Amino acid sequence: MRWEPTACQAGDMVRVRLGSVYHYGIFVSEDEVIQFGLPPTAENRAAEGEVKVLATDIDVFACGCIVETACLDRSEQRRRIPPSETVARARARLGEGGYNLIHNNCEHFVNECVFGESRCTQEEDVRSRWLNRPICDVYVARIPEVVSAEGIYPEKRRAEIESIVSEDLRRNARFLWQLLGVAAQHSFHVSLQEAGLKRRLGGKWVSDKFYFALRAQNGLAVAVVSNAAVSLRLNEAPQRGSRRILREPRMPVEVKGKNSAAVKYFWVENGALTLMGNKFFE
Q1: Beta bridge mates, 52
Q2: Partner of 232 at 20 to 30 A CA spacing, among 63, 108, 141, 165?
Q3: Which of 203, 250, 194, 259 is closest to 228 using CA atoms?
Q4: Would you give the DSSP letter of residue 214?
Q5: How far is CA 265 from CA 38, 52, 246, in A?
Q6: pTM for the full model?
Q7: 57 near 78, Cβ under 8 Å?
């Protein structure tokens, strides 16, 4: 389907762009455009319960904007309801209410009249962007005084960790890897054995199931897992065991190549997870 500013025929789907949204109607004539509610301008603002299917002339529908007509492809032409029946369907619904901005709006209305199915491309676009938004989960835990080397996978990573000379750094590395296992299981329902872990030539460990970043600082371990490439910066070092960082996160999470990210923060203690907060980064 293409939208072009061409001449309208009775039964055509028409629309006008008002800011970032479109308002849709069924064209009958210059004096009759049937639509679910008036164009959403400041002058026409109304509560959802007050919005009805109504008819206006083309000038009221257009609000001074360019009117575009739906140019259907062959498949859509075969599926569409005949124009005369489309007009009859639209007129039969005059005065109908039940408007809902997300689930029953002007675009749902015109699609029902033309194709017999309720759908809204604007709603579908928002849903698609929401479902495909980058998600990050941040896991924070206090590093214990003693951390066992058991259960660290893969063996190559365990050997790397055990070769660390500094006892403190070795303990931190052990615990970070264990925390990564908790994060992988909770966020992606996979164990580290199932995560496809491998070591790149530069020494960086990666997973083919998710992206991750690890940091240890001031007695705290932080593991970030995401469905997009991530990085973690600890610009302001949190105090040992402090949960204030979770109420007002001071650990900027960057999701590379994305415009925004939904971030959840978990406190991990004694095997239990507590959702401490969430934040949406633009």
Answers
A1: none
A2: 165
A3: 259
A4: E
A5: 43, 43, 6
A6: 0.53
A7: no
